[in-house]
Every structure is written in C-alpha cells, then in structure tokens.
C-alpha cells in the first residue's frame, strides 16, 4: 500500500454527533478510494490493521467494510482478503418506485415505522448520490417496513438539505413534511409532484450485520438483498436510498421499460 494511503488511514477517526462510528470509518476508507490513494484492484489492510491504525474496534471496522462492499466500493475474495473495486458505482437510467409499492401487494398491510429523521453530514457514498460535496448537510430518513406484522426491510433514504430548484420555483431549502406513514420518495412524489427521474436500482447481497439485525429480528449473519436506488431530478443527482430486504419478504418482481 502506498505511503500516502498509510498516513491517511492511520489518522484516528471520530464519529460526528448523531452518527455511528462505523460511518466515520466508512467515510475515511471511501475517501481514500475516491481520491485514488487506494488504487482500483488493490488489497485493503486487514480488519485488525485498520482498527489499530484508526483506534477503533475490529467490530466497527467489520461493519464499515460490510457497508463499503454493499455500496460497490470494495470486493471480498474468500480466503484472500478485501480489494478496492476495479470500477466505482455509476448512476444509470432506469425508473424506480417507492419501496412501499415495491414490497406491498394486494391484501397486504404495509406499515412504515420511522426510526429517525436527521440532518447530518453526507458520507463519501451519499454525497455523489444526492449531488453534494462530502460533509454537506443531507437529510436521512431511516425506516423499517413491516408487512402483516413482520419486519421485512430496513430503509435509509437521503436527499440534500441545501437549496434546490423544484419545477419553475426559485432555489429554496426543501420543506418536506413527515407524516410518519410513507417513505421519503413517496412523500417527495406527493408533495413535489412525481419525480421524473431517470433513476437506477442496483441489486446485491450482503449480511445484515448486528445493528440492523435487531431492527429486523434477524441474526447478524443472516443474508439480505440490498437494493440501492438513485434518482436524478432536473438532470442532477437528487435522491439516494439503500434498502436491506429480509428473506421473509419473499419474491420480488423486476420491472423494466423500453425507451425509444
């Protein structure tokens, strides 16, 4: 590993107010990847080495690495180690739907249980997805989706907290009213008019991890489907969501549309 990367990763990390320590570790490694201090395809230090360098526990490092893998910044090779992805995630052109439409169905009762609505600095993953610089303020809506009494998904949605132009209106801070009964994307569609997109939904697999396992009544090692959604508005990155879906949610339909 390059000396500059070693020095960068060897600085102790501190959590921002209201943000878990694993997010700070995630952001430090992601910043090293985005700034090319960690080269595409290069091998990462071990969990123990990273924890020692940043003065955090191996458990915190493991959760941060799990998030980095979910978000497509690193790849794990069984029995070898973890490596920086050869190519970083991009934003594509497919249309998407709010998750209550994706996971709900006829005759099923879907409840949105809000965990938190908080304004916080954007991580290295969130920032490009909502069109801001890392560290800029963004809104996070965190929810658990409960279907027929069972928790089936953990959802984190982000939009910028900075001033934006909506329609013909001049740029102004987003005034999003949380009624507690809908996801952020559905609320944006209801209050601002349906976002035209385009958007993309990336699909992956991961383990739920200890903190989210408690919310979904799972074991930390249980597998989950990871859906990462991006939406552009007025041709700019605007909305980013990551949804972890438990196996008990059952089959999902994938819808695609052709554009001429």
How many strands, which pairing sense, and closed or not: the largest β-sheet?
A: 6 strands, antiparallel
The termini sit apart by 47 Å
Which spans of ≥5 residues are poorly predicted at pLDDT below 50? 256-260
User: How many distinct helices?
Assistant: 8
Largest sheet strand order = 3-4-5-10-9-8
Instruction: Provide the gyration radius in Å.
Output: 19 Å
Quaternary state reads: single chain
Mean pLDDT across the residues is: 84
Q: What structural category arises from helix and sheet content?
A: alpha+beta
Provide the succession of SSEs.
HHHHEEHEHEEEEHEHEE
* Total number of beta strands: 10
Q: Quick one: overall form? A: globular
Name the helicity range: 25-40%
* Amount of beta strand: 25-35%
Keywords for this entry:
260 residues, alpha+beta, 6-stranded antiparallel sheet, two-stranded antiparallel ribbon, 8 helices, 26% helix, globular
Q: Nutshell version of this structure?
A:
The protein has 260 residues and is of the alpha+beta class. The protein has 8 helices and 10 strands.
Structural description of this entry:
The protein has helices at residues 3-9, 21-34, 47-54, 58-70, 99-103, 126-130, 184-192, 210-216, and strands at 74-77, 81-84, 110-121, 137-147, 150-160, 163-164, 172-173, 199-207, 223-233, 236-246. By secondary structure, it is an alpha+beta fold. It has a 6-stranded antiparallel sheet with strand order 3-4-5-10-9-8. Strand 9 (223-233) and strand 10 form a beta hairpin. Helix 2 (21-34) crosses helix 4 (58-70) and helix 3 (47-54) packs across helix 4 (58-70). The longest helix has 14 residues, at 21-34.
